[in-house]
Amino acid sequence: MPTKAITRAQITDFATHETVSTGDAAARAFACFDRGSHLDEVVTHLVLPADTVEHLWRTWARLRGLVPLSPEAARVLREILYCNRPLTSGSDLVAALQRFADRPIRLCTRCKSASPEYCSACPTREALKAARRSKKG
Questions:
Q1: 0.90 exceeded by the pTM?
Q2: Which of 6, 35, 89, 112 is most buried (CB neighbours < 10 A)?
């Protein structure tokens, strides 16, 4: 929920010392987001509380159909997709998914029945063998 600063009828723009409406403040923030400004830059440029800017950014992202990702989530996605390129937009993610889907399929060198990354038969077989050996010993 935004702070009281954005819910008041008027906001003072300290850069120009003029009073702007909440709609104008939101429009200015959206314009900054469209230019790729980071949240902290918008806070300092528009002199708005951080939680207000974050609320506006989430609204901006939702209205544009964007799914915000934390840096950690983007890193995990890149690892899962074997992607060495940054995922900065939805089109980057779609391209990484396409490259992942189009990659040549490799089979497990042991059982030849599944991809080595997802082969569950071989580790299960090895665990069963190890269990049998430990019972014998």
A1: no
A2: 6
Nearest alpha carbon to residue 10 among 2, 24, 23, 20? 20
- The three-state DSSP-derived secondary structure of the chain is CCCHHHHCCEEEECCCCEEEEHHHHHHHHHHHHHCCCCHHHHHHHHCCCHHHHHHHHHHHHHHCCCCCCCHHHHHHHHHHCCCCCCCCCHHHHHHHHHHHHHCCCCCCCCCCCCCCCCCCHHHHHHHHHHHHHHHHC
Tens of each residue's pLDDT in the chain, 137 residues = 455 445 443 455 555 556 667 888 899 999 999 998 999 999 998 888 999 999 999 999 989 888 777 788 888 888 888 888 888 777 888 898 899 888 887 777 777 777 766 667 777 777 787 888 888 76
120 Cβ neighbours under 8 A, 6+ residues apart: 114
